[in-house]
Every structure is written in C-alpha cells, then in structure tokens.
C-alpha cells in the first residue's frame, strides 16, 4: 500500500485509488493507470472497509474493480474468491494508494511493503517468494528514500482475540503442521484495554498471562 499524506487546514479527507502497473500475467502496461476507487471519504471510520475492498479488487483482476465497492465484507467467505473470480492472488505488483489530508497530517509519503519470505504454506504459489523479492527491490532502488525494516520473528500475539471455531487452524501452526518455522512459535498475551485501565502492576500482568495459558 502507498500512503500519501499532506497537511491541510481543511477537515480530514481521504481518497483511495488503484494503480495498475501490470496485467494478470505480470506484463507491464505501456502506461501506468491510476484511478479513484470509491468516493471521497470524510469519516475515518469508513477508511478500513474501503481499503479492504480495494485490496480485494487488486488481488482479483478477473473481476471489475467497481463490483467490490458494494461488497458486504461481513458475508465474505475467506475460502472462496469473491464474485466468481478465477483466482484470488496473495500478492501482486499493482498498488492500493491512499491520499490523506488533514490538519493533523504532515507532508509525507510511505509505502508498506510485504515482508520477504523464504517459504510458503502447502498448496500456495512458490512464485510468491520471488515476486515479493522483486517488489521490494523495485521500491527500494531509489536514492531519495528512508528504509525502515522490521525483522520477522515467530511470535504470535493477542491469543485472547480468537473467536469460536478459529482455534483449529492456529493449533496446527503451533503444532508445526503448517507454516513451519525451524524454532517454532512463541505466544504472548498482553493486558487488554480493560486491564490496563485497572493499572495492573507488571507482576499482576505476568500472573494473568500465565493463568490464561494454563
């Protein structure tokens, strides 16, 4: 995702855009096409859903992007490509962009790149490994940028947010059956917002974390 911030004395406004650089086969277009996705937003609470829809549009190139604007995200089946899409990609070179201006914004642009991976889960496309490397190389090749890198660790957080029926997939991960890491995973549970309001001591927080995993 590419986020372009700018200062303005006017109230918050945001416009999501889709930038198409390559076709379904990964062949670059003669001319990059960037077009608006949805209406101009003035309410920050609407932004998350609009970005999710934009990402689906980018990853399902066989479906017209406009169809995703009215998509009810609450009934979306994670296991099925939406609107009869030929296949939902996991990564692609095309970009979701967002222009934001507000009195709280500063003049700054940044790109959130996917983390470089060395393996994929069973059944997933091995080509994603090189695709992500190429994406990263392409975007860091300039000489007027700041790179902020974050190392990836086998640490999972917020286990208390799992809903009924979601545990089985994560148990497979922790058991080393899927998304295998050489040294496995470490799970932590930090105090919830309600617990932070209680002004728990460090020791009390640790005690509650231990009891959660018992």
Describe the structure.
The chain has helices at residues 47-59, 127-139, 167-174, 193-197, 202-213, and strands spanning 2-7, 13-22, 28-36, 95-102, 108-111, 155-156, 186-187. The protein has 214 residues and is an alpha/beta fold. The protein folds into two domains: 2-112, no CATH class; 155-213, no CATH class. A hairpin with a 5-residue loop joins strand 2 and strand 3. It is globular and about 60 Å long. The model has no long low-confidence stretch (mean pLDDT 83).
Task: Return residue spans where pLDDT drops below 50 for at least 5 consecutive residues.
Answer: none
Q: How many angstroms separate the termini?
A: 39 Å
Number of beta-strand segments: 7
Mean pLDDT: 83
* Strand order, sheet with most strands: 3-2-4-1-5
Number of domains in the coordinates?
Answer: 2
Radius of gyration in whole Å, from Cα?
Answer: 20 Å
Strand content: 15-25%
How much helicity do the residues have?
Answer: 10-25%
Please outline the major beta sheet.
5 strands, mixed
Class per helix and strand makeup: alpha/beta
Note the overall shape: globular
H and E string: EEEHEEHEHEHH
Q: How many helices in DSSP terms? A: 5
Identify the notable features of this structure and list them briefly.
single chain, 214 residues, alpha/beta, five-stranded mixed β-sheet, two-stranded parallel sheet, 5 helices, globular, P-loop_NTPase, Dynamin GTPase domain-containing protein
């Amino acid at each position: 995702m590419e986020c372009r911030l700018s200062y303005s004395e006017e109230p918050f406004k945001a416009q999501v855009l889709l930038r198409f650089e390559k076709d379904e086969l990964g062949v670059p277009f003669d001319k990059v096409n960037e077009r608006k996705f949805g209406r101009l937003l003035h309410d920050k609470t609407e932004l998350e859903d609009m970005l999710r829809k934009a990402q689906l549009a980018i990853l399902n190139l066989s479906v017209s992007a406009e169809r995703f604007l009215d998509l009810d995200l609450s009934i979306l089946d994670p296991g099925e490509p939406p609107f009869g899409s030929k296949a939902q990609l996991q990564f692609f070179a095309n970009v979701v962009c967002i222009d934001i201006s507000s009195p709280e914004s500063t003049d700054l642009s940044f790109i959130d790149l996917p983390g470089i991976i060395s393996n994929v889960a069973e059944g997933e496309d091995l080509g994603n490994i090189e695709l992500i490397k190429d994406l990263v190389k392409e975007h860091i090749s300039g000489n007027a940028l700041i790179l902020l890198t974050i190392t990836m660790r086998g640490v999972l957080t917020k286990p208390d947010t799992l809903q009924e029926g979601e545990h089985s997939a994560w148990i497979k991960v922790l058991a080393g059956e899927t998304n295998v890491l050489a040294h496995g995973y470490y799970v932590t549970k930090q105090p919830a917002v309600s617990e932070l309001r209680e002004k728990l001591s460090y020791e009390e927080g640790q005690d509650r974390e231990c009891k959660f995993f018992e």
